[in-house]
Design brief:
Blueprint (H helix, E strand, L loop, with lengths): L1 H70 L16 E6 L7 E2 L6 E5 L7 E3 L3 E2 L11 E6 L5 E5 L3 E5 L5 E7 L6 E2 L4 E12 L9 E2 L6 E4 L1
Antiparallel strand pairs: 1-6, 2-5, 3-4, 3-11, 6-11, 7-10, 7-13, 8-9, 8-12, 9-11
Length: 221
């Protein structure tokens, strides 16, 4: 009888320990379950926040695009271009001083040719233009052409040289139009060039020609 009571007591002790173990295990399981629920709620909450942030960002972008679409204005412009007649220049007549007679030992003598269609030649006292075998003095003539009423400027050398290979002479050029005052009133204009020929003392007899023809350059203003 005493042995049975001890066994019963031992059985009760074991059963109590087993029950305590089971209770602890249940408590742990409940704790894990609660933690899991809390974690799930946190994850769901975070996902909701992420989704909300994405939706909010998309909404802001769409709102900004819509606002800019409604705010912008558009204007249009056309383009045109006009090609005008190129300016051109043509030489019509060369400059001719004619036959000149100068007294021996005469110094500082000149012949001046007018820059005009009727280029009358004037000369100093010791110079003559003989009538025999006379050559009519002529100003150089150029025609400038281009668009009607356009203005233009032109350039030419101040002096040119004549030579017979031995004894050069200098011509100081003049023109009937000022360099910056050209105007194509009817689509063209004539330029006349004259000048003053300086004759040296005891200038050698002979035919004198330009070493290099002089250029006249024109351009629209």
């Amino acid at each position: 009888m005493y042995i049975n009571e001890n066994r019963l007591l031992m059985y009760n002790i074991v059963s109590f320990k087993h029950l305590k173990y089971i209770l602890v295990k249940i408590e742990v399981l409940l704790l894990i379950r609660n933690k899991t629920k809390t974690l799930k709620k946190t994850i769901i909450k975070k996902n909701k926040m992420k989704n909300f942030t994405k939706v909010f960002a998309i909404a802001i972008t769409m709102f900004g695009f819509a606002a800019s679409s409604f705010a912008q204005e558009t204007a249009s412009a056309s383009a045109t271009a006009t090609i005008i007649t190129p300016i051109a220049i043509v030489k019509n007549t060369d400059m001719v001083f004619g036959n000149i007679a100068v007294q021996t030992d005469a110094a500082g003598q000149t012949v001046t040719l007018g820059a005009a269609s009727d280029a009358n030649a004037s000369f100093t006292s010791l110079v003559t233009l003989p009538n025999f075998n006379k050559v009519t003095p002529t100003a150089a003539k150029f025609t400038v052409s281009g668009d009607v009423d356009y203005t233009y400027s032109f350039d030419y050398p101040a002096t040119i040289s004549l030579t017979n290979t031995e004894d050069p002479m200098t011509i100081t050029l003049t023109c009937n139009v000022e360099k910056a005052a050209g105007k194509l009133a009817l689509g063209s204009e004539i330029l006349y060039f004259g000048g003053t020929l300086d004759i040296g003392t005891n200038q050698a007899a002979g035919v004198y020609n330009t070493v290099t023809d002089f250029d006249v350059t024109v351009n629209y203003n």
